[in-house]
Amino acid sequence: MAARRFIGGRSIDREFALRFAEEWIASWYAHDLGRILSHYTDDFEMSSPLIVQLMDEPSGTLKGKTAVRAGRVRKYSGSIKIDRP
Question: Which of 7, 32, 51, 66 has the fewest CB atoms found within 10 Å of its own CB?
Fold first, then answer.
């Protein structure tokens, strides 16, 4: 029997994890911020030294989808390119 984990009350099995990862990757390479953010809760936090440098946020942390979306549109739009492996 496959191992199961529970996240937010949802059962996570191998098949679910693979589908989730494939969709996240497809969203990333499509540069579709809405699809990317759909994989996160509304109150998630993103931390990075790049947030300090590129977004003038001294804490290095953006809190919530709204802040991440605003930051992405304001500073990152078109500045970071990631090619498929």
Answer: 7
Q: Where are the domains of the chain?
A: 11-39, 41-77
Evaluate if pTM is beyond 0.85.
no
* Residue 16 CA: distances (Å) to CA of 34, 44, 46: 20, 21, 24
CB 61 within 8 A of CB 45: yes
Contact status, residue 12 vs residue 5, Cβ threshold 8 Å: yes
Number of neighbouring beta carbons within 10 Å of residue 60: 14
Average pLDDT over residues 72-82: 51
Q: Determine the residue type at 17.
A: A
